[in-house]
Protein 1
Amino acid sequence: MLKPFYQNELMEAGCDEAGRGCLAGPVFAAAVILPINFNHPLLNDSKQVTEKNRNELRLIIEESAIAFAVASIDNVEIDKINILKASFKAMHMAIDKLKKKPQLLLIDGNRFYTYKKTPHRCIIQGDAIYTSIAAASILAKTYRDDYMLKLHKKFPQYSWDNNKGYGTLAHRKAIEQHGQCKFHRKSFRLRPIEPVLFNTNS
């Protein structure tokens, strides 16, 4: 069961990103401030929630949040500054957009660049521990998925409707066949496609 808050004296915002490990598209980040009594049985780390439930939760989070914001950094800037810096920059941009200013930031992961003078806590697998980080993970994931679905209509050969830009076998085979497009991250190394070995004795 998710914990409602890290402490009870300062207003907390949970922050998380989506798309850090993708071969194409932007990285998205979200920041969410929730009421202390917020709870929903479906809420969890976005990777543990079905697509249908993620979309349902997104509406509930946006209606219930004290404040929320989403921001993104595109693949061109990711290639310029690297994905780690781009992830932190997207989080900073999301925090900038919050209508209420948090007094403490809860960051999913083990690293973060300090945001102005606001204290933060890095929490490994925080999206499976704290409600506000889980909510941020849902927003970042659903906003990014929606964006990749729009890109899929322009570049259907990469099957972004299914892989959302991650390096699945189908995606890597499509890159091998069609090359990269303008939305691919050129600085990311492609894993070689391993040949299938057949047992000739069978």
Protein 2
Amino acid sequence: MSITKFLLVFAIIFLPSLLLAGNGQPAAPPEGFSFLNLLRGMLGMAVVIGIAYLLSSDRKAISWRIVGIGLSFQLIIALAVLKIPFIKTAFEYMGMFFIKVLEFTKSGSEFVFGSLMDTDSFGVIFAFQILPTIIFFSALTSLLFYLGIIQKIVYGLAWLLTKTLRISGSESLSAAGNIFLGMTESPLLIKEYLEKMNRSEMFLVMVGGLATIAGSVLGIYIGILGGDNYEGQLMFAKHLITASVMAAPGAVVLAKILVPQTKPIKSDIKITKDDIGSNVLESIANGTTQGIRLAVNVGAMLIVFIAMVYMFNFLLLKIGDWTALNESIMQLTAGRYEGLSLQFILGYSLAPLTWLLGVPAADMAVVGQLFGEKIILNEMVAYFSFRNSLAAGAFVYDKSIIMTTYMLCGFANISSIGIILGGIGALAPGKKTMLSQLGFKALVGGAMASLLSAALIGIILG
């Protein structure tokens, strides 16, 4: 990226919000709909689209038809889930399904771990109460894949995306598959197409994987945010599922702005038949094995990344002591931050962007902190911080809580670049150079897709 582009991006993000913010925090907006909130949300979406336009590899080739239809899809999904009763009920039933699966997982875990599952006596032990969810969801996904249920749903969504957005069949299959599968599992649906994909098509596969989350970890986030409260679980389940669905057209929008399609496409849709087992039992066993690997990987990453956060904060607090910044930061934030820390830096550097997207001013620092943690660490760490912020009463507005749920819903973080390069690179060795060239740009696209969803939800919530 040239220095001119960087300065333009910086100016677009920060200058408008700093001018509007004045010398202190802007007054918190009144509850309910207001045209100011509508304009802010639209301005935030324009900022996201504007940044993508500046970073585009070929601005003249951008199809604004795709952008318009993709954004319309996101808006229709959001309005349907929040405002149309029978659609809202359907998504709540999907949420109930995930909650019931959490209960099934708990039953299996209690048989293995016994009294260690008693949160009243031992509290929440991540390895026992949370990680088993990944294993069971992975086995269940493998079973549904073996039975052909996931393929039928994905095929229907892919057909819709191909006909309306006019993207290739392989791109639409990958985008639709990412709603249910992870960023390394979804490409298996189009394994035989990967080596033949052009730059724009491969980029969409990457952005789609980074903009969404897998069903296997969706259950974890419902458990983390909802806790033992059924109503809380149901509320977060509905919004997390909606966020994952909205991310599919959002990923198409950002991908086709950042790396536009310039070559003819093939619209045929054919799901690759991948061997996941010769019978039901083998498919469950294979899914369980994959789930164990994923659970161990998640646990290990959390240990390392959370330890890194504490290490950096220790060093930053020492710097704050030497420079007398800690006391000033405590006064500036009214005690919300104890001194110079990673959370403080992320919160206040990204606060203007979150305000532009429609987050109430009273909550913009905490939302900025959580979004920053997602990008530089991972969404799992961010969701844990989110839960802690909820428990501490850090949010003033419910709207901020909902918008944060959408912002954090996606695999777009620095460590995921390596995962997606390794996963897709193993399936398409001839594309490794292309994948490495597009890695950081795909991260930007995936992150901005989540911001688009959050801004749209913020506009509807008022």
